[in-house]
Write a structure and sequence with these properties.
With about 160 residues, the protein is mainly α. About 60% of the residues lie in helices and about 0% in strands. The chain is built from six helices and no strands. The longest helix is centred in the first third of the chain and has 29 residues. The protein is globular.
């Protein structure tokens, strides 16, 4: 006797698709009936609650990023987890270092923009073999020097 798993699976899948299609159809009619001002308000709230944390490792492996986070914790007021993901809090701590020593003049906001990268390039140029221009672009030369910086932080954890 052959089991009925394939027909049952197909029937279950078809049912799930039908339910989902009905739900989506109902959602779009309900959305269309909602005034525009209410829709905008709802979207703004939901986008803030589900926005993922930005991670900008600039080519570092998770292990290398952990070394940097340990250094940031030890010297620059980083209090978040040592998870190998250079997120907003990691970059805020790094910006404090860059502001103190490397000419960063922007806000301490954790945004890895051109000003943050330019200051990082000055640090990397001084000690970690970065030999390209200070252009605020985290290209291959910046990433290679940043990896050397991170590897040298392995004793921080």
């Amino acid at each position: 006797m052959r089991p009925n798993t394939v027909p049952r699976t197909c029937a279950a899948l078809a049912t799930a698709v039908a339910i989902a299609a009905g739900t989506l159809a109902g959602a779009s009619t309900s959305f269309a009936a909602t005034p525009a001002s209410a829709r905008v308000s709802t979207q703004a709230v939901s986008s803030r609650t589900v926005a993922p944390r930005a991670t900008v490792n600039l080519g570092l492996s998770t292990t290398q990023a952990k070394y940097v986070q340990c250094w940031l914790r030890n010297y620059w007021g980083y209090t978040d987890g040592i998870d190998g993901q250079l997120g907003t809090d990691s970059w805020k701590a790094f910006q404090r270092n860059l502001q103190e020593y490397w000419g960063y003049t922007g806000a301490i906001d954790g945004d890895v923009g051109g000003g943050t990268v330019s200051a990082l390039q000055r640090l990397l140029q001084a000690f970690w073999g970065y030999d390209s221009s200070i252009d605020g672009i985290a290209g291959p030369a910046t990433q290679a020097a940043f990896k050397r910086f991170a590897d040298n932080r392995s004793g921080e954890c």
